[in-house]
Amino acid sequence: MDIIANYGTTLVLVAALFGFLMAWGIGANDVANAMGTSVGTKSLTIRQAIIIAMIFEFAGAYLAGGEVTATIRNGIIDSNAFVDSPDLLVLGMIASLLAAGAWLILASYFGWPVSTTHSIIGAIVGFAVVSIGPEAVQWSKFGGIVGSWVITPAISGVIAYFMFISVQKLIFNTDDPLNNAKRYVPFYMFLTALVICLVTIKKGLTHVGLHLSDGEGILLSIAISIAVAFAGWIYIRGQKYNPQDDSKMHFANVEKVFGILMVITACAMAFAHGSNDVANAIGPLSAVASIVASGGEISGQAAIAWWILPLGGIGIVIGLATMGEKVMATVGTGITHLTPSRGFAAQLATAATVVIASGTGLPISTTQTLVGAVMGVGLARGIAALNLGVLRNIVVSWIITLPAGAILAIAIFYVLQACFS
User: pTM value?
Assistant: First the structure.
């Protein structure tokens, strides 16, 4: 308690610095996942992707990041274990932010798409074990986390596989792909809009004052999706194509339509990601600010100080702009060759899996979900279409993320203890 009383302001400033670093890592790694397929399919240039992500990620983080956040991320540790020693919790959260942020930046440097959620969870578990003991960790939560390494990529992979197969059979592998695109693409637009609306309603609107029941949210999503499909139908029918064009030109024209869908989906996923994953950076930071402000009192939830959400949003944007290119390349071109229709199938499958996970409480990593979806699209063309070397590196990086976060957090925790005691 003496540490909080004597160094309160310093602790908050250090936590803010490391929280910014964590947000930087999220931008460099996780946001690049959201935009990687759009860049890989050449629907967007890297510069365009960065600009779009900057706008929508910041909007999601700032507008829908939440007025209240769980300060102990995902309930992975028992906050009651720290009631008599809140200074340990403060130092541990600061150590966790630096450890997770450092790991994310290192992974981004090598182009590894890893889970930001697993990074911060590993770090929090590490400091909790050495500061209080194993009893401070709610180990039952770990079954779902480890299971998510297999379950979420599998779900998104299966959805992406069948989505891409349907596009191939209904449009590309037909005698008249252009006319079939005019017939079926509005249906895909309906699906896209429906999933996007459900993701947004699940993740953001309650924080901006719009409280909808599940039934109201579904009805609103369907209404918006019908309007989008109708607008898409009018747009596609209004396009003038030369009937004398060969099949390659017809394919190119169809891919342009899917390219537009890719951009829309990427914008929505960036907003949803900003509203959700900014909590990985601001959750521990809010915990530190709340405990210091209350003089050592620990609460499960706390109002976010006005400066924390902008700090997280700006950090995410800068991370993407400075270091996001390598992870974008891994997801967009490293795993398999993507076209706009393939990228669309992967992006829609990712969004659909997020909706499923939100409705069922399934622990999820957006990164692993997208990688699984890209794999599913690749498998639709055969195992030879996948770069197995890249996939091996990705899986290894997933496995070592939890222990890497824990080991770094333990080392940093001991250093902080030495500095402040």
Answer: 0.85
